[in-house]
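Subgroup meeting minutes
Present: P.N., E.W., G.H.
Scribe: E.W.

1. P.N. recapped why we're keeping a running log of single-chain structure predictions: easier to compare across weeks, and new members can see raw inputs and outputs side by side.
2. G.H. added today's entry (143 aa).
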Amino acid sequence: MSSSRAQEAVTVRTFAQRFSATRRGARLARMLAVHQLDQWGHPYGSPTSEAVALVVAELAANAVLHGRVPGRDFEVRLHRADGHVRVEVSDTHPAHPKLPAQDPTAEGGRGLLLIEAVATRWGTSPRTGPGKTVWAECATGES
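Output recorded in log:
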């Protein structure tokens, strides 16, 4: 005899994936982050999806361009919590990012300024092993 049991719903609150420290890896990180948000109920094109996509794109690009150590990957972690999504990007380079001086003639260096504009807060944390984690939290409008 077999008995049927109702399966309990499992709520996944964290997504983590390692990517190659290449432009292709950064692009894939953004695409998979947006896909995960859609699975969590924040559809493509929603304000939360757009904000997180921008944060992942900028932090992944920084990991590839400035945090790259040959032969090492970077990791993206999303954590869903009440009212926000936390994005963490870890790489093995020891240098921590700093907001650049606002120079309207500069051709680059605006990524952290964009993150500061769309995230409720951001910062850096040490990580186990070499390198650091740069994180940002984006509001979801949920309680």
